[in-house]
User: What shape does this take?
Amino acid sequence: MNVVEKIPAIKFDRYRQSAHQVFEVLRKLIISLELEPGVVLPRAELAEHFGLSQTPIRDALTRLAEEGLVDIFPQHATVVSGIDIASALEVHFLRRSIELEILRTLCDLPDGEHAVLIIKLMACLLTQKRCLSPLDYASLAEADQAFHKEMYEAAGVGNLWELVCQRSGQIDRLRRLNLPAQGKAQAIVKDHGAILDALFKKDKSAAEAALRIHLGGTLSFVKDIRTLHPAWVKD
Assistant: This one.
C-alpha cells in the first residue's frame, strides 16, 4: 500500500493553521504505528494528498523532526524515525517525577475539588473498561491519556501535560507496541483503578506505589520489544 493511502483526508479548520492540522494527523499515525519506523513520507505526494502547497507540509514535518518522530535528510527524503530507547527512558523519568508530585497535590485538594476529580477519573476508568470487550487498542490508549490529563488539570498544571506529550513520542510508540501483549490492556485498567482508589482515600503512599507500577510496565518489556522489532528501535 502506498504510504499516502494510509493517511485520512482532512476537513481543514480554516481558523487553525493547516500545517498544525497536518502535523496532528501524521503524529497520531506515527504514534499508533500505522506509519511504521522506516516509512518514507514524500513531501510532494503529501502536499497533493492534502491539497496544500509544500510549505505547510514542510513545516509539519519539521515539527515532527523536532519531536524526534521523523528524520529529515535534506534534498533526499523524510523518514519515520526508529524508536529511541534512550529518549524514552528520559521521558519516563520526567513523567514519573511530575506525576508523583501531582498525586501528592491531588490528595491535598479541598473536598469539593477532590470530589469532582474522583468523578471525572471514574468516568475515564469506565471508558477504559468498555474498551476491553471488544478490545479496542486505539480507544484504550486515548482513554489512558485522558485519565492522566485529568490529573494534571486538577493539579493546576495542565500546561505541563502538553510539555510531557510533546516529549513522549518515543515512549508512546513503545506503549503501543506493548499494548497487544497478553494481559497488558487489562493491567492498564487495573493500574488506573488502583491509582483512583488511592486518590479516593487520599492515601499518598498507595497512590505513588500504584503510579510507579503503572508507568514502569512498558519499560519492563523493552528487551522483548527489541527482540520482536529489532529494526524499529535504536539506543
